[in-house]
Amino acid sequence: MAKQTINIGTSPNKGDGDPLRTAFTKINENFTELYARAENTDGQTLTLAGNTLSISGGNSVSLNISPTGDLKGSVFADDSTLLVDAVNSKIIGDIETDSLVVGNSGVINFNGSNVLNGGTVEAQTLIAGIVGAGEVELLGGGIQSQTDISIDINLTDSTTYSWKFTEGGDFQFPDSTVQTTAYRGIVTTHSGLDRIEVGGTPAAMDGLSVRLVSSAPGANEVEINYQPAGTEAIGVNRYGTNVFNGIEIISNGNTTWFNIDSFDTIGDGTEFTVTDYSGKIYRVNVIMANITTTSPSVVTGDAYCVIERLK
Q: What is the pLDDT of residue 90?
């Protein structure tokens, strides 16, 4: 009810104001409403909306919930479950958020254990920010994802390198080349003796072939032939020396055999890497097992040969 005001007339004793009965009726009704509110018998509702505390019937009071000081204390759910432990500075309840940011010196703990040491993180995207000059490690735990997992490293010169574990089980390098397995294994050859021999079948893996030829007078020589998928640049490095003094551009169907090293003594050996700049790297080891000579020429021989694909 709105406040009722008595009409006292325009001047004393003029007779144009409220009659006494009307005036006292207004007084009684005003007091009746005030007493009802004081005794809470009129079913009024107290409502907090934003910073305003409202009482039904028009009366209201402003409630400042952002004073100069901080709000302090623990937080409990409707069922009295502790969510925030203000005494021990811990968030006890679950956190559901689209973004969780942890400062440079922050640590995420699950059940008292560091999340980087056996904890589990479930997220659409997990971003590890800059942690000074330190590293991000997962010790004894694992990463599970329903899609690809990318690891990006942003250098101080704004260069970004990205490695990716794909859903199909492959591993993608920053140059976008893909390794279908972590390690292709070792292929050894031939003749049932794990050897290559002069005039025999070359050792081979993918498009790389290694053979042994005889030069007279001279020694047994190691040569390679490579068949790329298309036209590619290749490089060969033997004990830190670039065999080609650069690179060779070759195409599929290439018939050229490149000389890598030569031997004239049993036990002589060589190790070299062959790099296909489309993303493959091979390591080759050759050690002479036998050499047959007819003075002064080396006639034939055979050698142990191991080819490994490193990438």
A: 81
